Amino acid sequence: MDLPVMPPVKPMLAKAVPAIPPGMHYEAKWDGFRAIVFRDGDELEIASRTTKPLTRYFPELAAGLRRELPGRCVVDGEIVIARGGRLDFDALLERIHPAESRVRTLAGRTPSAFVAFDLLALGDRALLEEPLHRRREALAGALAGAGPPLSLAPATRDEEVARRWYAQFEGAGLDGVVAKSFDLPYRPGERVMVKVKHERTADCVLAGLRHHKSGPVVGSLLLGLYDGGGRLQHVGVCAAFPMRRRQELMEELSPLIPGSIEGHPWEEWAREEAQAEGRMPGAPSRWSGGKDLGWVPLRPERVVEVAYDHMQGDRFRHTARFRRWRPDREPRECTYAQLEEPVGYDLGQVLGTRHAWEP
């Protein structure tokens, strides 16, 4: 491979802001795997946000990009999978599997697609120092005749349109809006864009904790919600506490540690065979990287209010943020019924065309 911009390249990143800023270039925020694609003729590499290769996990995408991309280019974008007219992040996670046969099966069952939103190189020309508006113009021209599995990300300069996207596109599985300066050069690894994500709150049952990597202080709190059958389901974690607060939380929550896990709603998760059956607080995964995911059960007597952006199935898509304790709430009141559901919005309307890459 011989390109004017060569791997490894870390993608340009965004920092969170509370509101959509005026006077910028706006795009929807896609909920997938960020990736930079390097193509030089038949040679093609799909690199992750951390510059690790993803090509083997998405063979159908690599084949499609060889067909649809210009012969020599470097493109920044998002790998996505759609099911039922909306993005499905869990289907992406399933792809990171060591068995090639499993990857091939999933490639046929839930094919992936690539939504392109920036151009780092085209032909023999590096575009990193070009302003965003020129890179976008070049990207639109380069992809003018492209078809599935490749799409050009919609963009606008109209703040009102961006606000409408923010309100509507969540129903298709997107999770906010990204804003960029018109004159912004491409800055690998730097947080020079901004993102506005949805935030909601939920009252959850505190049912366990994990220790921090530094020692016996709180690393994260394990959250639960009661389903329609009265079973407490694990919905995610909240974390990101200052070290002093981690120590205080450990002292505060120690009286809730039971003498035995017997009778705890998640007692079955202590069994190794049960952990292998699903995503449980202590279950290992291909994403854990050898981390100790053991957990400490707590009597499910406390309610905590957390902020979250959106759900992925029956769980929080990202780590929740601690807001406050709710001593005025009873744990049994913490059900899925309180969660706000976005109005459905078909992904084809986001892209302005029928997304033929969805099975």
UniProtKB/TrEMBL annotation:
Annotated keywords: Ligase
Single GO term (MF): DNA ligase (ATP) activity
Enzyme Commission (EC) number: 6.5.1.1
Every ATP-dependent DNA ligase family profile domain range: 114-231
Keyword Zinc: no
Enzyme class: ligase
Entry-linked InterPro entries: Adenylation_LigC-like, ATP-dep_DNA_ligase, DNA_ligase_ATP-dep_C, DNA_ligase_ATP-dep_cent, DNA_ligase_ATP-dep_CS, NA-bd_OB-fold, OBF_LigC-like
Highest taxon above the source species: Bacteria
A Pfam family this chain is assigned to: DNA_ligase_A_M
Membership in a protein family: Belongs to the ATP-dependent DNA ligase family.
Protein known as: DNA ligase (ATP)
Source species of the chain: Streptomyces boetiae
